[in-house]
Amino acid sequence: MEPVLITSCVTAFFLYFNTLDAEFAYDDSRAIKTNPDVLPTTPLSQLLWDDFWGTPLTHSGSHKSYRPLTVLSFRLNYMVSEFNPRSYHVTNVALHVAATGLFAVLARALTPHARLARTAAPLLFAAHPIHTEAVAGVVGRADVGAAIFFLGALLSYMRYCGCGRGSAALGGRVGRHVWLGAALVSATLSMLTKEHGITALAVCAAYHVFVHAKLRPKEVFSILSERRHRGVVEGLSALGASLVVLLACRLVIMGSQPPEFAPADNPAADCDSPAVRALTFFFLPAFNAWLLLCPNTLSFDWSMEAIPLVTSLGDPRNLASAALYAVIGLLGLTALLSLRRRRLVDDSGNGETSTTGDVTVMGLAILILPFLPATNLFFYVGFVVAERILYIPSMGACLLVAWGAHLLYARARTLRARRCIQVALVILFVLFAARTWRRNRDWETEENLYRSGIAINPPKAYGNLANILSSQGKKEEAEWAYKKALSYRSNMADVHYNLGILFQEQKRHEEALQEYKLAIQFRPRMAMAHLNMGLVLGLLGQKAEAAEVYRHCSQLDGSGLKDPRTHESTKISALFNLGRLYADDGHFERAIDVYQEAVDKMPPYYQPQSLYNMLGEAFFKLERFEEAEKFYLEALKVKADHVPAHLTYGKLFSPQQRISEAEEWFRRAKALAPNDSTVHQHFGQFLSEVERHEDAADHYVRAAQLAPSEYEIIFNAANTLRQAGRNKQAEEYYRLAVHLRPQEATSHMNLGAMLHVNGKLLEAESSYLEALRLKPDDSITRTNLQKLRHLLAKKGISPSR
Asked: I need a labelling partner for 171 at 20 to 30 A (CA). Which of 24, 241, 427, 584 fits?
């Protein structure tokens, strides 16, 4: 094996070794953790009909990103480690090593006698910082995988061309067509890994016409008329037919509908001015070219205003656009002039069989053709700049840079000049490697990644950073970051929604309500904002308004949305909460109607166990026990370990005097969730109802230990301890209840009664008096106080007041 192949592969592995323990980042969670197609419970055939994010391609909200092989690879990773990121990162690094090795083989095939070029090209590719997003970010696997099949297609097609049509041997003819078939299959696999992989067919065509057949542009039109070009016709016909078939299949599968994107994803596409659109789209390839040449400033996201629109001819960025197209034109002209001479020189200056034109043509073809789908030339795309899409084009850039260095080296007249060229390449490689290694640290955690993007895209970076800080419990910092994001871009519905969630968690309900209203103002069909707004209104006691919001949420149109699954599931959740709102008010018939509506409308992917369980609860309250049992069993059928269904099913048997069956279901719930306070609370309630007070007290105490801040559990634990005769413990828990709700008269009254029983008479009097201060007309407390003072008088103790 050639040393440069080993060296470039080792370099590719070593530079990304520090990403193996990185977290999932940015789009990884949506493409993997919330994508149902990654789970083994989803039929494999579904991968053929869903997009990269798990949304049906025919849905109006689909991005039409058809990458079933990439999703299949995620599914295989899930079988190995479920959602542990390590196996996903190991796979990405391994694929990058494989892509680097294949590129080294290609560079060797294109520049067989130019040692400097075939060494520099794969090493620069292995170390290029622009690849960090594709390798360190798991979602970038689509680009790396597509590159592997892309190179496989090109190398196979080169072998096909090299076999020659003149071979009389059957094996030669068969072998030639095997290589052609391998090229077509590889191009298909590349497209199924990521869409732009189909451009491998165009690059193969460029190789056949200009490199292998050595045709000049004016000779291309003679292909069909001259017999000597039959081999070219055969190859191009196969490539063309494959292109037509693949594009036709792609259009059929995606429903012949273009994708829809938010204006922030691609602001130029949403601009009304054709001139602004044109100038901006002309500039974006120049910006991408600069990232390839000088990848110092990188970002996880370039949307919104990260790259301002080019609004006039006077914008200096137009010079960059002009420079790019001038360089491409110059390189193209160089290639055309070189196609006739086809002369190369090697490191020692001797003439060789290859030509500058061949390498220039292939470098330009690999650089430009795979990038064309991202230029907005054929259709609008959902991004401004995406670093990972430069993975394949960077091969062309590395090839051209390495070849240019080789030409300078070959024409240098002194040893010092040659050494300078070599040193320059080494310095470039070291700079690339150092930047890659440093950039990998940004991708180790989401927090690092978003902090690194603040200078480029502050609203998006601050908004995402706030989510991370909130999940880490750093609520004050998260609030600051959300508000910072909104200071740059006030109409970010997601940020308003997430800030509302933060306020809701902190019980700042009025502020949460305001943020949800703003989220809905900027995105009227945002179902999650409606759902949470309904929850907050319910907590504020505005039940009529909450019911209205839930009903409106359940009727929201989901067409054209990015995540239709979540949207449709949220609509069912809105009906679920509406039904629960009615049930809490004792309107069980209305609750049943709403729950049934939710069952009728729920999509196949909705998990209905909680819905079935609440239906059973409503029937139970109406003492329609057979129907209640039916839905409890439905809930358990959907999810056999659904703890709430175990609890409600156990409660069903108690009024029917099926005590042993009830206890068995409570014990099953306890086995499933031994540290769930709710389980112990319900088990304790059941035991108390059957007058097993000692056992009931044990379960309530355990529930209180698991949920020490839950007033209802603490208060009920105290009551049950009192019933069990464990008065000292009961006193302790009544004190805890008073501490949790000092304004609750019932807590003070019961504490007073317990202190009264325990002989702490003056303390009892104090508790009774506090209860009467909070609830002056409570007759039970007044009676207890009178009895206490009568006892104090008998004992000769003066009342405290």
From this structure: 241
Is 608 inside any structural domain? no
**Amino acid (1-letter code) at residue 115:** R
| pLDDT tens-digit map of 617-652 | 999 889 898 898 899 899 999 889 889 988 888 888
Q: Which of 419, 439, 459 is the last residue of a domain?
A: 439
Q: Please report, to the nearest 10 degrees, the dihedral formed by the alpha carbons of residues 717, 721, 727, 731 taken in order.
A: 0
DSSP class of residue 56?
B
Contact in structure between 505 and 541 (CB atoms under 8 Å) = no
Question: For residue 800, what pLDDT is reported?
Answer: 63
Report DSSP letters for 295-340, one per residue.
TTS--S---TTSS----STT-THHHHHHHHHHHHHHHHHHHHHHHH
pTM of the model: 0.85
Q: Which residues of the chain, if any, have pLDDT below 70?
A: 1, 164-173, 220-222, 224-229, 256, 339-355, 799-801
Q: Which long-range contacts (CB under 8 A, 24 or more apart) does 584-588 make?
A: 585/543, 588/618, 588/619, 588/621, 588/622
Residues 216, 340 contacting (CB under 8 angstroms): yes
> Which residue, 738, 798, 748, 737, is CA-closest to 773?
748
Q: How many domains does the chain have?
A: 2
Examine residue 661 and state whether it is found in any structural domain, yes or no. no
C-alpha radius of gyration, the chain, whole number: 35
pLDDT at 242: 95
Q: What is the pLDDT of residue 232?
A: 83
Residue 67: predicted pLDDT: 94
Q: Is 267 helix (H, G, I), strand (E, B) or coil?
A: helix
- Whether the Cβ atoms of residue 300 and residue 133 lie closer than 8 Å to each other: yes
Contact 66, 195 (CB under 8 A): yes
CB 645, CB 613: distance < 8 Å = yes
The DSSP secondary structure of 479-515, one letter per residue, reads HHHHHHHHHH-TT-HHHHHHHHHHHHHTT-HHHHHHH
pLDDT digit string, tens, across residues 395-435:
999 999 999 999 999 999 899 999 999 999 999 999 999 99
Predicted local confidence at residue 58, as pLDDT: 80
The dihedrals phi and psi of 50, each to the nearest 5 degrees, come to -110, 160
Q: How many other CB atoms are there within 10 angstroms of residue 356's CB atom?
A: 21
The residue out of 404, 439, 474 marking a domain boundary is: 439
The whole-angstrom separation of Cα 137 and Cα 14 is: 17
On the 0-12 / 13-18 / 19+ scale of CB atoms within 10 A, 151 is buried
Q: How many residues does the chain have?
A: 801
| Eight-class DSSP state of 227 | G
Q: Is residue 212 part of a domain?
A: yes
Nearest 5°: the CA angle 425, 431, 436 is: 125
Q: What is the pLDDT of residues 174-191, one digit of tens each?
A: 778 899 999 999 999 999
Domain membership flag for residue 429: yes
Per the structure, the complete domain to which residue 36 belongs is given by 3-439
Query: Please, what is the average pLDDT of the chain?
Result: 89
Q: Which two tokens stand for residue 704?
A: 């209180």
Contact 353, 344 (CB under 8 A): yes
Q: Both tokens of residue 145?
A: 């995988």
